[in-house]
Design a protein that fits this description.
It contains 10 helices and no strands. The radius of gyration is 16 Å and the shape is globular. The protein is 73% helix and 0% strand. It has helices at residues 2-18, 36-47, 50-64, 70-84, 88-101, 106-118, 122-135, 140-152, 156-169, 174-187. The protein is an all-alpha fold.
């Protein structure tokens, strides 16, 4: 029952975050000062062609991955490396240590959410994504993860709404576009 209440409460939070104006600067939504570059990259990403978007996304990921601490960066790398080799238990340990020591670092929470999702632990994954989006409302990776959780928990309208927000931030995402088409059929009642 805790799983459903976590996801339902988080659905309300996401709905509210989706209503935020799109032109808020990073400073207005509580991002740290170093994310001025991230805000600039996000603005460029919205209007970029597909090739340019890939470059901007890599730059943005690098920007978001800067914790300001070599030790925290190391924990992030260890967690990501563990996920690469599907060692989700080690990844959860590394990301948990990271979020314990740097709770204001969104990428630690994002990694933890990915590790929980890989273990089919959707409630804890949704909780971690809540932290990511509270720290970085424009984190399209977290939004994609949330959309996937809503799909897995049979909430197609919420998943579609979240995916719309992803495409506003990151227009060139064929997987999200395909998911939206699939979900539109379910929402409209035309799916068999």
């Amino acid at each position: 029952m805790k799983f459903k209440s976590t996801v339902t409460a988080f659905a309300v939070l996401v709905t509210i975050s989706l209503l935020l104006p799109q032109d808020l600067s990073a400073q207005q939504v509580g991002e740290p000062a170093e994310s001025d570059r991230a805000a600039e990259l996000l603005m460029q990403l919205r209007d970029a062609d597909e090739a340019e978007a890939a470059r901007l996304e890599r730059e943005l990921q690098l920007e978001w991955s800067k914790s300001g601490s070599a030790a925290m960066d190391f924990l992030l790398k260890r967690g990501r490396d563990a996920l690469e080799v599907s060692d989700t238990h080690a990844a959860i340990e590394h990301f948990t240590a990271l979020t314990d020591h740097a709770p204001e670092f969104a990428e630690g929470w994002q990694g933890l959410a990915r590790a929980y999702y890989a273990e089919d632990l959707y409630g804890p994954a949704a909780d971690a994504l809540e932290h990511v989006l509270a720290l970085n409302p424009a984190h399209f990776g977290a939004l994609r993860g949330l959309g996937a959780i809503f799909e897995q928990t049979e909430r197609p309208a919420l998943a579609h709404q979240v995916y719309e927000r992803v495409l506003e931030l990151r227009p060139h995402d064929p997987e999200v576009t395909e998911a939206m088409q699939r979900l539109a059929a379910q929402i409209d009642g035309t799916a068999l």
